[in-house]
Specification:
about 575 residues; mainly alpha; two-stranded parallel ribbon; about 0% strand; globular; disordered N terminus
Length: about 575
Amino acid sequence: MRTSARSTSFRGSLLIALLIASTMLTVGRGQEANEGATAERPRRAAVDMRDLIERFTADRSSVAYRYRVPMSQVAAERRERFREQWLKRLERIDFDRLSRDGQIDWLLLRNLIEREAARDEIERAKDAAIADLLPFATTIVDLAEVRENGGPIDPQALAGELDRLHRELSASIASFSPEGHGPVDGIRAARRTDELRRTLGEWFRYYDGYDPLFSWWCRAPYEAYDATLKRWSETLSRRLAGLDPSDSTTIVGEPLGREALEAELRFEMIPYSPEELVEIAEREFAWCDEQMAIAAKELGYDDWRDAQEEVKNRFVPPGDQPRLIRELAEQAVEFVEARDLVTIPPLCKETWRMEMMSPERQKVSPFFLGGPAIIVSYPTDEMSHPDKLMSLRGNNPHFSHATVQHELIPGHHLQQFMTKRHRAYREIFETPFWVEGWALYWEMRLWDLGFSTTPEDRIGMLFWRKHRCARIIFSLSYHLGTMSPQECIDYLVDRVGHERANAEAEVRRSIMGGYGPLYQAAYMLGGLQIRALHGTQVGPTRMTERRFHDLILQQNAIPIELIRLRMSTGKIDRDWRTTWRFADP
């Protein structure tokens, strides 16, 4: 068929128009996909909060990967800008047209963003308070950021700068005076010095050997300055914090302080003051004391300590602990399934493993740890005789009666199995009030259902319940500055009945184990939250036990207050804030 010139021209114009339209659409989509694209768009009902949270998680990871220099103002401003952009994105969503799950997700994301902003602000304030102890921070940060950005360098000038920093810091060490700062400042400044020293080491290794002039000029002054930074950290630790840097046994940490502690409680959706939480723990402690006295009487003792000593000494011989653990695990699963309390997938029952904990790790974790594998604390042949006895006594069968189900099923192993299969995108919102609260709740629930049939097993369960009460008291008191690490240890020994080495390990874990400030308090408080929720949601005309427990697991590890919202039918407002006094008498 013959084509006219006019027809060809028309088709060409149409093709160009389509190409332009396609290009504009592609660009528009690309801009919308960009994290910084915040232009106003019409509100729409079909917002997929799961997709949005997954995008936030990926974007946040990218920002953290790129802007990672410690104490960097550039990194802090980039994180702040990132959060502002995401808060604006949340504000554009029509909250009322989201599903109930979508509204929960919206509140979770807003809470996380606000929490990270508050944490950044507190960290900056703490760094500002010790700025005079880190006079080299700005220079090291600047060097690292030039390297991160691929900027040009002048090796000869850098060598002079390193030499100057080395001489100035050497003079500061020689004339050091601790006036104006306390031990906590010394601990923080030493930690920051170590971080900056590692950053400088990474900066040096980036160029060394790859840039011959850099190596020729900078290697010697860098090595001298690196050694001086190490001496400065040791000086801060020894002369300001009162610690020997070679001391691996002394327990040290940075108490959070009231303002930061209250902020953490707010973001964990716990509407109580620290003092109110201590009162709650004392009330629970009183109940434990009453029950412990009853169990001790059944064993023929007037003093609970004597009864607990008898129970501690009923340990199994070395090498027999794995058999005991498996028997206790099977006993807990059989008890839960016989009462149809929660769904336990067959694969979950099949796929846990057992490992033994090293002697070094037992200095921090003297008891079980759990999840996909239960990690067993029990003596090894190279331990000293007193340490062997303390480990045997602290992991006796009756204490283990409570901890095996806490770590496996229906506790942490079941939790982790389910969170990988239900709303896994919520893992960035993980809170210990759900993680540890769930496992502690089961200790309470199994007690109520008669899981412990002997006074020895009840004493074992009460030991752990008292321990959770004590954790609230000593951890909050430590962060408020009213209890020292040694007082925390003594409290666990005197009030709970811990072996002293195990008490030291527990306090070391709480303060130096990398846990958040509320982690230890979260066991009992999270358990009380779920117990209170159980009281309002489970009954003949309401949910079954199984449906209640399954629903909690299916929400993933989010604040329990938001699980309560999910179970309720009332309207949720975008300005919602918690007022749930779950532990009031």
